[in-house]
């Protein structure tokens, strides 16, 4: 399987982005793999510290490796939002392909020093692991919020992006460009959508000269997604949309069969619902790719 760096480079040339989908259990993982196999595009499976604690860091890596062996899908594994050096090292030793070291809650200089320390430690374990850092404010928690944050959020500037990348040595940068974690209720209802600062993305890409990740992608306007990819976004994170699909489908499954106690019969429709969200997002993020790029074996 191609290294993650090579895949990101290729997708960027093809005008596409790598879809990143968080998993907390086997339901989500089966759904992501199934969509990746069907659409035949690379995908990034992510797990935050909380999700890794629930699944098991080494256990998740082992299951992903097993599923890789049983399919021809290009699936990579990312340790999402890792807030300590200890947890970053744990993920690196477990065999993750990428690690997000998130010290964005600290003052800028402390963020720089902590991120640099993590980059050096991770690269010592495995130089091929791509390390991501984050600057700016994109909120916390992939959940449903009652309202949008009232106080102004700190958006990333091109100057900060350039300084951060040069000082830390990160391979990937996660900026704040109008994105936010989670969704407000009006987004879940389809009444409102997140809007991105496309011009800011363009300027940050030019200044930073590294791969860019869009965190908090759930609930974003589809056209903004496509414009952001053209402006330089390489990875797009989707989590809350999957959780909403999981919750709604599980409630329906339980309501329709109140006496059912066989887990895999209750959860089969839930896998399908989550898979549908992943499938639709993968199609959107790869919409500009040519047929030859998506299906190289059929190319003349």
Key phrases:
300 residues; 8-stranded parallel barrel; 10 strands; alpha/beta; 13 helices; two-stranded parallel ribbon
How does this model look, in words?
Helix 2 (about 25-40) packs across helix 12 and helix 11 runs antiparallel to helix 12 (about 265-285). Strand 1, helix 2 and strand 2 form a beta-alpha-beta unit. About 50% of the residues lie in helices and about 15% in strands. It starts with a helix and ends in a 6-residue tail after the last helix. The protein is an alpha/beta fold and about 300 residues long. It is globular. It is built from 13 helices and ten strands. The mean pLDDT is about 90. The longest helix has 23 residues, at about 265-285. The chain has helices at about 5-15, 25-40, 50-55, 55-70, 85-95, 110-125, 160-170, 185-190, 200-210, 220-230, 240-255, 265-285, 290-295, and strands at about 20, 45, 75-80, 100, 130-135, 145, 170-175, 185, 210-215, 235-240. The chain has an eight-stranded parallel β-barrel with strand order 1-2-3-4-5-7-9-10, surrounded by eleven helices. A two-stranded parallel ribbon has the order 6-8.
